[in-house]
Structures are given as C-alpha cells and as structure tokens.
Design a protein that fits this description.
The chain has about 80 residues and is α+β, with helices and mostly antiparallel strands. The chain has 2 helices and 5 strands. The model has no long low-confidence stretch (mean pLDDT about 90).
Length: about 80
C-alpha cells in the first residue's frame, strides 16, 4: 500500500485516472451485505496495479490491500 501512496497511484484511483477492471466480485464473508472485490487498474493499455477491497452494502471501503503493482518497469507482488 505504501508504494501506491508514495507514487500517487492511490490518489489516481480515487480521482478516476485509471480504468478499473473488476476481476472478482463476491459476497464478503465478514461484512453482512458487503462485497469482496479484486480490481485491476490500467492507464490506457498499461497495467498499473491490482487491489483487493471489502465494501459495505453502501459502498464504503472498510479494507483494501494491494495484490501487486507495476512501477517504473518493476513488478512488486504481495508476499
């Protein structure tokens, strides 16, 4: 998550700079009526990152973590 913040990617996601592609959308196990989503983000045809987030049924994000991110030609993956 630190890389997303330091490189402005999280802000770019927030303001709609990147195109989201939902890879997975399932009911959240720990949030009644919530959703568990895996979303990849692209800038044009260029892959930026993939993150997992848990949302309430009113679309409030209660948890998010990064699966992987591609910065300056280097891919960083979650351990």
């Amino acid at each position: 998550m630190r890389l997303l913040i330091e490189h402005g990617i999280l802000e770019g996601i927030r303001i709609g700079r990147y195109d989201p592609v939902v890879q997975s959308d399932a009911p959240a196990r720990k949030i009644q009526g919530g959703r568990s989503l895996v979303i990849s983000y692209y800038y044009g045809n260029q892959y930026v990152c993939t993150k997992h987030e848990l949302k309430t049924k009113r679309d409030g994000v209660v948890h998010q973590d990064v699966e992987d991110v591609f910065i300056n030609g280097i891919r960083y993956e979650r351990e």
